[in-house]
Design brief:
transmembrane helix; transmembrane; YrhK_domain; YrhK domain-containing protein; membrane; mainly alpha
Length: 93
């Protein structure tokens, strides 16, 4: 099945579990990025906190960068979970 296909996540109990786990991690990363950017934005009101604020923005950016990475890893894992029968057939041939 192709990547990002809805059928990949609904194939069986295990694929639904993996999808739910990745969604929890994705939501945490999204929330962490938003918190970092909010804290960094507030810190920019004070010149003395500008260095720390820049780090908050950097960490928030890394969290935002992790989001598409998590989605791709999830989809590759889900797609690979559907290849068991194909692999078994290839082994028999």
């Amino acid at each position: 099945m192709p990547l990002f296909s809805h059928e990949n996540r609904e194939r069986n109990h295990e694929t639904r579990r993996v999808y739910a786990l990745f969604e929890l991690v994705y939501t945490f990363v999204d929330f962490a990025a938003a918190v970092c950017f909010t804290i960094g934005s507030i810190m920019f009101f004070w010149d003395s906190l500008m260095f720390v604020a820049t780090w908050f923005f950097t960490v928030g950016s890394v969290f935002f960068m992790a989001k598409p990475t998590l989605r791709l890893v999830r989809e590759v894992k889900l797609a690979a979970m559907g290849d068991d029968d194909d692999l078994a057939d290839r082994y028999r041939s």
